[in-house]
Amino acid sequence: MEIKNAIHKAKANDQKAFNFLLHTYWDDVYGFQLKRIGNENDAEDITIQTFSRAFDKIDTYNEEFVFKTWLITISKNLHIDLLRKERSSISRQISNEDVNTINQVLDETPSAEDKIITDQNLAKLLRDIKKLKPHYQEVINLRYFQELSYKEISIELNEPVNSVKVKLLRAKKLLAEIIQNQ
């Protein structure tokens, strides 16, 4: 199929003509974007958007210009629009933030005091768990300290999964009552 003929047919919504134009110019547009961006995924996304836009606006194509040039122009404009959107969102984010906050880096490693408090809370929790009946202690240990699934606990205890769920629910309820009563 000749390019001019394909363009006329595409203007008449001929799907085969669209496919022909897509296959004929895909490498040109994709290669252009890949050189500009350097990222295959982004280049492919913009190339897809380019053909989508071109096929939506094919009626506006002026045959005095080379079709490939028209496609490359659309592709270039889409990339410029994308860059503008990214820049404006970045500048908006920075302008809305306090400069001091931007310069501070949050250190999430626990301090010595945090470690002591965590250890004390864990020791208190373990003491509270020891107040439960042994079969409740065991199911809590298996679930939360050994991190076993319900199925693994059921195999370990040789009980049905539903019994394990009920026992664990009851153990948590009793433990909550012990903690609240202190």
TrEMBL record:
Sequence ranges assigned to domain RNA polymerase sigma factor 70 region 4 type in this UniProt record: 126-175
InterPro entries given in the database record: RNA_pol_sigma-70-like, RNA_pol_sigma-70_dom, RNA_pol_sigma70_r2, RNA_pol_sigma70_r4_t2, RNA_pol_sigma_r2, RNA_pol_sigma_r3/r4-like, WH-like_DNA-bd_sf
RNA polymerase sigma-70 region domain mapped to chain residues: 23-87
Pfam families documented for this protein: Sigma70_r2, Sigma70_r4_2
GO terms for MF: DNA binding; sigma factor activity
Repeat found in the keyword field: no
GO terms, biological process: DNA-templated transcription initiation
Gene3D superfamilies from the UniProt entry: 1.10.1740.10, Winged helix-like DNA-binding domain superfamily/Winged helix DNA-binding domain (1.10.10.10)
This protein's UniProt keywords: Sigma factor, Transcription, Transcription regulation
Family: Belongs to the sigma-70 factor family. ECF subfamily.
Official protein name in the record: RNA polymerase sigma factor
Species name: Formosa sediminum
Higher taxonomy: Bacteria, Pseudomonadati, Bacteroidota, Flavobacteriia, Flavobacteriales
